[in-house]
Amino acid sequence: MLLLSLFATSTSSSSVVRLSRTVGERGSGRGQFDGPRHVAALKTGGAVIVDGLNERIQVFDRHGDCVRIVEGVTTPTGVAIGGPEGDTLYWAESTRAHRVNRLQLSAKSARTAADPGVGRPAVSVRR
């Protein structure tokens, strides 16, 4: 199982809020992981998790349910959330792909943000 811990801090007070939830188990199915690494928190309370050895990225809602899978990711090595609305997913692919990709979480397809010119494999997004 993977234990997600999200922390919120406030500079105006010394309070720290700790939210924990356990999601997933070992495997290759929806909500399962093989080599989980790199977690990015979503504004909605969910999380995006790089599932390294399954070569995909999984998106979880605030209840811990897997709501989206980005498959066909070549050696994913990092993930971040950005954009003005906090709904743009960026991930890095190294070793064989050497590129950074972006996906608007409301979109159905991904785009390459930076690519050294190597061929791009198909990336699919499932809800």
UniProtKB/TrEMBL annotation:
<keyword id="KW-0677">Repeat</keyword>
<dbReference type="InterPro" id="IPR001258">
    <property type="entry name" value="NHL_repeat"/>
</dbReference>
<feature type="region of interest" description="Disordered">
    <location>
        <begin position="108"/>
        <end position="127"/>
    </location>
</feature>
<feature type="repeat" description="NHL">
    <location>
        <begin position="20"/>
        <end position="63"/>
    </location>
</feature>
<dbReference type="InterPro" id="IPR050952">
    <property type="entry name" value="TRIM-NHL_E3_ligases"/>
</dbReference>
<dbReference type="GO" id="GO:0008270">
    <property type="term" value="F:zinc ion binding"/>
</dbReference>
<dbReference type="InterPro" id="IPR011042">
    <property type="entry name" value="6-blade_b-propeller_TolB-like"/>
</dbReference>
<protein>
    <recommendedName>
        <fullName>SMP-30/Gluconolactonase/LRE-like region domain-containing protein</fullName>
    </recommendedName>
</protein>
